[in-house]
Amino acid sequence: MNIEKLRKAVQGTVWTRESADYQSVRSGLLWNGRKPDRFPEIVVRAMTTADVQAAVSFAAESGRRVVVRGGGHHFSAIALQDCLVIDLGGMNGLQVDPQARIAQAQPAVTNGMLATALSEHGLAFPTGHCASVPLSGYLLGGGIGWNAGAWGIACHNVQSVEVVLADGSRVVASETDNPDVFWAARGAGPEFFGVVTQYRLRLHDLPRAIRTSVWTYPISQVNRVEQWMSRTMQVVPRNVEFTAVFSSAPPPLAGQATKTISAIATVFAATEDEAQATLAQVAAGAPQDALDIQQSLETPLEVLYLMIGQFFPEGRRYAADTNWTADPARQMEIMAKAVVAAPSAESFAIGVVLPPPDGARMPQAAFSMVGPAFGCTYAVWGDARQDSANLAWMRTTSEKIAPISLGHYIGEADLDLDERLAGSFSREAFERLQHLQRTYDPSGLFHRLRSDMELLEKVG
Looking at the keywords, is Membrane present (predicted)? Predict the structure, then answer.
């Protein structure tokens, strides 16, 4: 099949490096303003599963490699490679069955789109914290979403997937059908050996009283805030999210502090009484002398998305790295000191203390790396001349956390570093994933990060 036959075979659009609008298409593959010097040979904007099959078959026949682009949101720019890019951005179909409490969603459906559509039926899903991120990369990476303490990791709420494999075939995978493919689709991230073209999702009741309280302190109070958060998460219900945000002081507080730590407690409650009782339980342990306190704000998901969105303005240059740890005190102390010294005032970090384990065994899936606490450092800047300084700041922060790190979350890990890949899985899961890659994609059609045994040796 030549390029003209490929164009005729798909409903979507095919671009090559000779296309008049190639540069704008290439740039649009990434949300991040920081775009590496990589130039896809061909970009296929797929509109249907058949388009994906045609693109995969074309690549296999012509000896090209394939990378899959969902929304281009990963901070490591993995959607932009020197190969054939299958862009799923046009596949955003969504069907909701409120009686069965099931949704069928294509990969370009965003977290915000899904949350809005489900809310009309009084339903919800553990969608990701950023509204513009599509389900494709979010669910493939596992998905740490809203109310995960009660609803679980997002990929564990996936019932089945439709997948195009390296041989161009279409399969449906679930716990009973093609279970190896299903296992990998729930957490393999960019190492998945196929293209997911549809998800079947299990839904939950939409909490009727989502309420948030925010306490903001000088960043020097990090130890007191962490102690309060860790104590609180041992006793509150699992429907509480408690996050510390380390950042430049919000404008109303800029005259009182340069850098602050904001403790944000959100409860996903069924009733107003439940929400108020839980937030009162959280507030009872709050350190004194906060710079600002906002109590019991009404925060439906659309408001929560606006709160998160202010930290990620479009057009900026971004880099990020994550760590799971059993030592939230040390991790938060390191991140607080890092934010104080950040070369960009827009950079920030978050620290999350998770609910204690509930005794249930985590479902079998490629997503296999978790810990009692989670942290992510975000470098955010605007000037390309500051790339080196901001990347060095982010990576130095992770180096300081490394002695207490249990591993990483592949959805936001610094995948430009080799060891981040293997460190995003348990050793057993990583070995199984490599075996399945060799089984389902023996020729290496799909672009992969370094995933050899040498990486396993690095993580022990």
Answer: no
CATH classification for the domain delimited by 209-418, as one of 3.20.20.140, 3.40.47.10, 2.40.50.140, 3.40.462.20 = 3.40.462.20
Give the residues across from 283 on adjacent strands: none
The pLDDT averaged over each successive group of 10 residues in the chain (460 residues) is: 91 96 97 96 98 97 96 95 97 98 98 98 98 97 97 97 98 98 97 98 98 98 98 98 97 93 98 98 96 97 96 95 98 98 98 90 93 97 98 98 98 94 96 97 91 45
- Strand 373-381 with 348-353, pairing: antiparallel
CB atoms within 10 A of CB 327: 17
At residue 454, the pLDDT reads 46
DSSP-derived secondary structure letter, 134: B
328-340 and 387-401 are packed helices; what angle lies between their axes, rounded to 10 degrees? Answer: 160
**Cα 296 versus chain centre, distance:** 27
Residue 261, classed as helix, strand or coil, is strand
Query: What is the dihedral angle through the alpha carbons of 218, 223, 225, 227, rounded to the nearest 10 degrees?
Result: -170
Please write down the HEC assignment for all residues of 72-125. Answer: CCCCCCCCCCCCEEEECCCCCCEEEECCCCEEEECCCCEHHHHHHHHHCCCEEC
Q: 94-205: what CATH class?
A: alpha beta
Which of 161, 191, 193 minimizes the C-alpha distance to 178? 161
Per domain, the residue ranges of the chain are: 3-87, 94-205, 209-418
Report the SS3 class of residue 174: coil
pLDDT value for 359:
78
> Which amino acid does the sequence have at 440?
Y
pLDDT at 455: 43
Distance CA 91, CA 134 (A): 10
The domain defined by 3-87 folds into: 3.30.43
If you count DSSP H runs as helices and E runs as strands, how many of each does the chain have, helices first?
15, 19
Residue that is written with structure tokens 């995978």 in the block:
173
Which residue is it, tokens 């730590």?
A: 261
Do domains 3-87 and 209-418 share one topology? The answer is: no
pTM recorded for the entire structure: 0.95
**End-to-end Cα separation, the chain, in angstroms:** 45
Task: Give pLDDT, residue 450.
Answer: 65
Name the residue with tokens 């800047």.
381
Residue 234, helix vs strand vs coil: coil
CB atoms within 10 A of CB 273: 10
Distance between CA 212 and CA 28 in Å, rounded?
Answer: 35
